[in-house]
């Protein structure tokens, strides 16, 4: 970690992100970036300047290889911060993390999903899984309830969860909430939901695919060409299972 006094000096350097972006073209600055970015992430929960500096770096410097470390630091800080708060305070405390994760999602969506999955697969997190999911969604959304809307964080932590049973349960909750039939969903949110549901239609676990197929309003959310492509993939997978003698537990609805 960067010592606190050194970190304060670095934050005061004008356009440090631009300077390092230029230097990275001729010199290897990866080790410095790794330590500096993790230090910023570590301090972002209590220091708005660190948070703003980290966001600036992610929008300026190519950081694809650093996303895993940043996300891990942010989510770990969220869990540490939550231990000192009640539910009301918790719902108001995650704006700093939201800013960071939303910028990562904008620039590195697949890397963010991989990093969140890795965090959730950690044995320490799995030992208290339900409370971790609820805490993170509370901090970033103010609610763990899917009936309040399909937020980015609910997709990251539930719909893209590494455990099939949680992905399946989340899809079932979506089906009963009626959210997919809502008419007031903005275009960016609709695109995010569409991409998440398409991933579940191509899920490795066919029971999750079955839950996705059972959703009422699926045709209203996913564009026809993408839906037909998903149906073709599912049909091919089932035919392969039938011909290879593997057991198939999916019903095409």
Description:
70% of the residues lie in helices and 0% in strands. By secondary structure, the chain is an all-alpha fold. The protein has two domains: 1-144; 145-253. Helix 2 (16-23) packs parallel to helix 4 (48-60), helix 5 runs antiparallel to helix 7 and helix 5 (67-82) packs across helix 8 (109-121). The longest helix has 21 residues, at 224-244. The chain starts with a helix and ends in a 9-residue tail after the last helix.
Spans where pLDDT lies below 50 across 5 or more residues: 248-253
Helix content: over 70%
Mean pLDDT: 83
H/E series: HHHHHHHHHHHHHHHH
**What is the number of strand segments?**
0
> Which class of secondary structure composition applies to the elements?
mainly alpha
Please report the number of helical segments. Answer: 16
Q: End-to-end span in angstroms?
A: 53 Å
Main sheet summary = none
Content of β-strand? under 5%
- Tally of distinct domains: 2
Overall shape: it is globular
Topology overview:
Elements: H1 4-12, H2 16-23, H3 30-43, H4 48-60, H5 67-82, H6 87-91, H7 95-107, H8 109-121, H9 123-126, H10 129-141, H11 152-159, H12 164-177, H13 187-201, H14 206-213, H15 218-221, H16 224-244
